[in-house]
């Protein structure tokens, strides 16, 4: 085998195998986040995130967009993870920070702040001083998808990043709040593959769902809680109200041993 073949054996950022090859070897969240932000494994999403940055929304015409994968946000010893869907084209894809820069994020951060898990109720840009207390925000897909709908193939390609992130969080992780059915469906196989005991048939998603995954040889007990996604479609119609989301986050904080208010 010559040097060219040897170099070709390691998937580069444009290779669909890039996440699966590199994510499991990360031993720190900072390393994972750094690798993740260079990922270009999904051609459709790479094109979309970059097109959104080139065309821009009128209100952000003078802003530079991040236009790359958006890493998780929050401390590496978080007891609670909040798992959404994917960054929004003009929200996280613009600001480079999970859930930051759009109405969905405003709703979520207001709820987190009410419970005492965020330092401020609003988040506008990556340098706005926001910090999270004991909670990490992440998603099964890290690039903005057209119409907020990643394909099953894109979800599966991105899965190793979430699996590795949860593995690195696992020593202190006690609860996961899942925002919406897509995140729920994406998360369960990740948890099962990572050694958590996920019941069969798999628990159904619903707002207020609360499933306890028992401890195994490899994993501690984990509480899985469901909430409707704080998308504008849900919040404008009243399907998800602020008290509903606050209640779920407060329950997660309680089982996670966090000092919620
Ligand atoms: S969605 Fe995930 S796997 Fe696909 S390009 Fe973005 S970070 Fe990479």
Automatic annotation (TrEMBL):
Residue limits of the Uracil-DNA glycosylase-like domain? 71-249
> What InterPro entries does this protein map onto?
UDG_Type-4/5, UdgB-like, Uracil-DNA_glycosylase-like, Uracil-DNA_glycosylase-like_sf
Q: Which domain of life is it from?
A: Bacteria
SMART domains registered for this protein in UniProt: UDG, UreE_C
- Is 4Fe-4S tagged as a keyword? yes
CDD domains to which the protein is assigned, alphabetical:
UDG-F5_TTUDGB_like
Alphabetically ordered keywords of this record: 4Fe-4S, DNA damage, DNA repair, Hydrolase, Iron, Iron-sulfur, Metal-binding
The family database entries (Gene3D superfamilies) matched by this protein are listed as: Uracil-DNA glycosylase-like domain
Task: Report the sequence similarity comment from the record.
Answer: Belongs to the uracil-DNA glycosylase (UDG) superfamily. Type 5 (UDGb) family.
State what protein this is by name.
Type-5 uracil-DNA glycosylase
Organism of this sequence: Streptomyces atroolivaceus
């Amino acid at each position: 085998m010559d040097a060219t073949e040897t170099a070709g054996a390691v998937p580069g950022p444009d290779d669909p195998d890039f996440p699966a090859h590199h994510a499991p070897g990360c031993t720190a969240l900072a390393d994972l986040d750094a690798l993740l932000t260079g990922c270009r494994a999904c051609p459709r999403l790479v094109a979309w995130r970059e097109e959104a940055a080139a065309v821009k929304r009128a209100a952000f015409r003078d802003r530079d967009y991040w236009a790359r994968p958006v890493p998780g946000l929050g401390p590496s010893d978080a007891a609670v993870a909040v798992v959404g869907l994917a960054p929004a084209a003009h929200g996280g894809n613009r600001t480079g920070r999970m859930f930051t820069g759009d109405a969905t994020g405003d709703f979520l951060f207001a709820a987190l702040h009410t419970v005492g898990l965020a330092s401020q109720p609003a988040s506008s840009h990556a340098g706005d001083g926001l910090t999270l207390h004991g909670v990490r925000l992440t998603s099964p897909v890290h690039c903005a998808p057209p119409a907020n709908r990643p394909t099953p193939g894109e979800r599966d390609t991105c899965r190793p990043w979430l699996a590795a992130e949860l593995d690195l969080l696992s020593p202190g992780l006690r609860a996961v709040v899942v925002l919406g059915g897509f995140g729920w469906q994406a998360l369960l196989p990740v948890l099962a593959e990572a050694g958590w005991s996920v019941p069969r048939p798999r628990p159904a998603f619903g707002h207020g769902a609360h499933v306890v995954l028992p401890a195994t040889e490899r994993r501690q007990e984990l509480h899985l809680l469901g909430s409707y996604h704080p998308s504008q479609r849900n919040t404008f119609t009243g399907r998800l109200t602020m008290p509903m989301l606050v209640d779920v986050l407060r329950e997660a904080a309680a089982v996670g041993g966090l000092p919620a208010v």
